[in-house]
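User: Here's a protein and a ligand (tryptophan). What would the complex look like?
Assistant: Let me lay out the input and then the predicted complex.
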Amino acid sequence: MVMTAARPVVLSGIQPSGQLLISHYVGAMRNWVAMQDTHDSLFMLVDLHAITVPQDPATLRARCYDFVALYLAAGLDAQKNTIFAQSHVSAHAELGWILNCYTHMGELERMTQFKDKSTRAGAVINVGLFDYPVLMAADILLYQATHVPVGADQKQHLELTRDLAIRFNHQYGEVFTVPEPFIPQTGARIMSLQEPTKKMSKSDPSALSYIGLLDTPDVILKKFKKAVTDSGSEIRFDPEEKPGVSNLLTLLSIFSNTEIPALERHFEGQGYGALKVQTAEAVIAFLAPIQEKFAALRADEGALDDILADGAGRARARAEVTLRRVYDAHGFLPRR
Ligand code: TRP
């Protein structure tokens, strides 16, 4: 095992409440891979959070294996990182409870993600959905994470985590490290292929709006061909006036590793059809080796279980240290 004590501690994760998409790759996974050599990193399968909305057990289980195999296929090394399932480390639920006792109702009522999710038509609102940011704070504080790479939509949750850590430390001394939000400056927000002013999302009811990391070449081509573009015919990067075209240019730029101005020159005199097909081809080519590695990894669930068991063992040992300090701070009796 590598000695990593002096490195900044990074923790992140994605909920297996839908498929992993190219937007997760661009916004999260590729950044994780880039950090694994310089940071002490923990990457989670955020399964406890996934059940804040109803999940079918068989689908959830299959998707959890898909997630772990994709984390690895995308380049995360199970030796360099601690890769684990949130539900395998009971300290998450335990610290979540403790932090509930320090969180004000009003702080959770203000959360914009809760307001969005709970006001959607037909939404089933359970207490877990309301309480979700507190569990997320527990995820982070258990490992004394210093850096938490998240999308902009999670910034408010990070701020709550900081507030809780500060509040707790104020009362009990320096128990928690106050984490920094770390919103990667890729400048690339990946938008829905159907409504390019909205972010690409795994919970979008239309599968045409997103590209899954496991979508087949045929499906990818079909989805790009159906992508909503803008009026006019010029291929120009202009997210205000041309959100659809700009989103395709962003994707093509990332997946073909070509600067956007060079792409604009390349497409002079060509139509939207050419842009769609070439973007699809770049995504298909980029995903091919990841999908190939995925297939090999996914075929051996026992090996994935072993990786998760190893990750959970390491995560548990670290989480327990924090949890004992928290329990002790409250005056709970020592465990013998
Ligand atoms: N709430 C995050 C999301 O939906 C997932 C998450 C849960 C997370 N716990 C976390 C992310 C801890 C970073 C750190 O994207």
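Summary: DSSP finds 13 helices and five strands in the chain.
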